[in-house]
Amino acid sequence: MAKSQISLTVNGKTVEALVEPRTLLIHFLREQLGLTGPHIGCETSHCGACTVDLDGKSVKSCTVFAVQASGADIRTIEGMAAADGSLHMLQEAFREMHGLQCGFCTPGMITRAYRLLQENPNPTEDEIRMGISGNLCRCTGYQNIVKAIQYAAAKMSGVPFREAAE
Ligand code: FES
Ligand code: FES
Fold first, then answer.
1. How far apart are CA 14 and CA 7, in angstroms?
2. Which terminal Cβ of the chain has fewer Cβ within 10 Å, N or C?
């Protein structure tokens, strides 16, 4: 099959590649770039495990062809930590608040939470639950994920974190 040339930015680096027109962005990221943080849970746009940040929006990368992402600026979970390896506050928060168990949903969940907090730095619990409603978790029951996002929001806004009563 004829391949198309694409050029995009992934985690701050310019990437040039040849892709088949049928290649999904998630497969391009995982198989051609070796970025295996974004996971494949369903490939039918239900689970959110493949979520990446694309031009300032949370996008399920199994719903986009790689050729459609040409010219885009993409951030995956691999691009969340600082260059010196220090974790993003959301990553710290998921660790501190036990926001993961098996970890399968976590890259998509953190990437989604990143955009949620960019759009709304101080979300209510309901806004967090609505904001992550496109990301499924089979393990945690969501409570600690919500708590982790509340914790990160507080730390990033410089306000004290007060744990809500369960
Ligand atoms: S793998 Fe993309 S939404 Fe499930
Ligand atoms: S921690 Fe296992 S699916 Fe979310």
1. 7
2. C
In angstroms, the CA 68 to CA 157 distance is 35
Based on the domain organization, do 56 and 74 belong to the same domain?
A: yes
Would the CB of 73 count as within 6 Å of ligand 1? Answer: no
Does residue 134 fall inside a structural domain?
yes
pLDDT of residue 162: 80
Give yes or no: residues 8 and 36 share one domain. yes
CB of 40 closer than 6 A to ligand 1? yes
The pTM of the full predicted model, rounded to 2 decimals, is 0.95
- Mean local confidence (pLDDT), 2-11: 97
39 Cα: distance to centroid of ligand 1 (angstroms): 8
Alpha-carbon distance of 136 to 16, in angstroms, equals 32
**What residues flank ligand 2, with Cβ below 6 Å?**
100-105, 137-140
The Cα–Cα gap between 65 and 27 comes to: 9
Ligand 1 site, residue 57, Cβ cutoff 6 A: no
